[in-house]
Specification:
It is built from 25 helices and three strands. Helix 4 packs antiparallel against helix 5 and helix 17 runs parallel beside helix 20 (353-369). It is elongated. By secondary structure, the protein is an all-alpha fold. The protein starts with a helix and ends in a 5-residue tail after the last helix. Among the domains are: 1-92, 2-Layer Sandwich (Herpes Virus-1), CATH 3.30.40; 110-243, Leucine-rich Repeat Variant (Alpha Horseshoe). The longest helix is centred in the middle third of the chain and has 17 residues, at 175-191.
């Protein structure tokens, strides 16, 4: 059986997040209830682990609250405050009989208390050196529901987040500023979870400085922060008027390499899907961006991802390959890859009608601009030509069928040398034997 004192400590810990406690019981750094309060030479009380981290991990020589210079880094336990906190907790803890009572009603003061806490956090966030802890607390409050999200926006939370996000453009070597930017993006990502996203959030994210900061995080941030960022980019991609040139021109090849790395992520399928969707949107908006993506190795990465992709991912990858093949550099990159033609031939008829149409478009582009003997032979060897012939039997005229007819007419002389090529096809195509 667990020790009774340990059980009481666990119960107190659970109650800390539910009961409104006096501001003086909070650590000025973390804004959380203090368990081991200590006094420093300026007379201000902090949680021991927080102030020791401030002094000895971050090598600070000032008081976090007063910003006074400090020479004596010793701390003294504040036994009086610790006793007061214990007494206050005991007096405000529910009785055992109430532990099985129903959850608080909607009229519970908790939302009001959390709103007050949000106000306090936003006011001190700019001057608080431990911004990461404060942002995490804000994230927990916002997760309560849409009402808290609205309050956060009304209270000017977006402007506070903006300042934290763009700070890394001033000095991206500042580790604490970088971490604060990552956490701020996590908060913003929560504000974009509803179907009807607030226009103010989109407006903030669309600012060039914010976009550039997110592009930096996408390249150098933690895995979690990169997932936040690509999720935000996916939301922005839904805005048809969004100008991607801001980050394409600023970050270019490096940014595309980061997106391709996320697209290759086999663990986080959501991040992978989001990265592919963003790539489609960016590449569809300008041919200049396609050149940079090709230079970043997009064609090679996508062709190698294709064989093991599911239907949804496969269609996205094929779409991107098609966009890249509309550029000369993209077609060269495609035919230079030893698996290019084979990968497309395998997906023809084996994924979906949408995927098959895109495959035909890709093969048509390659046949039109780079009809080398090597490429045409590969199409025959890997079964692409055989499948194109099958497509001719699809009922009714279509643009896809027209592309197939055009390829077969144009390259009939070479393909007809192979015994597997149907001899009656010349008559069907209206070509006389020569």
């Amino acid at each position: 059986m667990p020790n009774s004192s340990c059980t009481m400590e666990m119960e107190r810990s659970n109650l800390d997040s539910e009961i409104e406690f006096p501001q003086d019981f909070r650590c000025p750094i973390s804004r959380e209830l203090m368990k081991e309060p200590v006094i420093i030479s300026t007379g201000v009380t902090y949680e021991r682990k927080n102030i020791e981290k401030w002094f000895f991990s971050y090598k600070k020589k000032t008081c976090p609250t007063t910003m006074q210079s400090i020479e004596n880094f010793g701390v003294t336990p504040n036994h009086t405050l610790k006793r007061l906190i214990r007494v206050w907790q005991d007096n405000h803890s529910p009785s055992p009989s109430s532990s099985c009572s129903p959850s608080p009603s909607p009229s519970s003061p908790l939302p009001s208390f959390k709103r007050d806490e949000m106000v306090s956090l936003l006011k001190t966030l700019g001057s608080n050196p431990f911004k990461v802890n404060s942002l995490r607390k804000l994230k927990e409050i916002i997760e309560i529901g849409d009402e808290m999200k609205l309050d956060f926006i009304i209270l000017g939370g977006l402007d506070v987040l903006f300042q934290l996000i763009v700070q890394i453009l001033v000095d991206c070597s500042d580790f604490m500023a970088f971490r604060a930017c990552e956490e701020a993006l996590g908060v913003l990502q929560l504000l974009l979870t509803t179907e009807e996203d607030d226009g103010k959030v989109i407006e903030l994210l669309s600012k060039p400085e914010c976009m550039k900061s997110m592009a930096v995080i996408l390249q150098r941030g933690s895995k979690e922060a990169r997932v936040y960022t690509i999720s935000i980019f996916k939301k922005l991609a839904a805005n048809s008027n969004f100008n991607w040139n801001v980050i394409v021109n600023d970050q270019g090849i490096s940014m595309f390499k980061s997106m391709l790395e996320l697209a290759s992520d086999e663990i986080s399928t959501k991040a992978s899907s989001s990265a592919l969707q963003v790539l489609i949107k960016i590449l569809d908006s300008s041919k200049k961006s396609r050149s940079k993506a090709i230079e970043a190795g997009a064609m090679c990465t996508l062709i190698e991802l294709l064989p093991d992709s599911n239907r949804s991912k496969c269609e996205k990858i094929l779409h991107i390959i098609k966009l890249l093949c509309e550029c000369p550099d993209g077609r060269v990159a495609f035919i230079e890859h030893r698996l290019g033609v084979g990968a497309i031939a395998k997906k023809l008829f084996n994924v979906s009608e949408t995927a098959s149409k895109i495959c035909v478009k890709i093969l048509s582009l390659i046949c039109s601009f780079h009809p080398t003997e090597k490429v045409l032979e590969e199409m025959m060897i890997y079964g692409a030509v055989k499948k194109l012939v099958v497509l001719l039997h699809v009922s009714g005229p279509s643009s896809t069928k027209n592309k197939v007819l055009e390829m077969l007419k144009k390259h009939n002389n070479l393909w007809s040398r192979y015994p597997c090529f149907p001899g009656e096809l010349k008559e069907y195509l209206g070509l006389d034997s020569r």
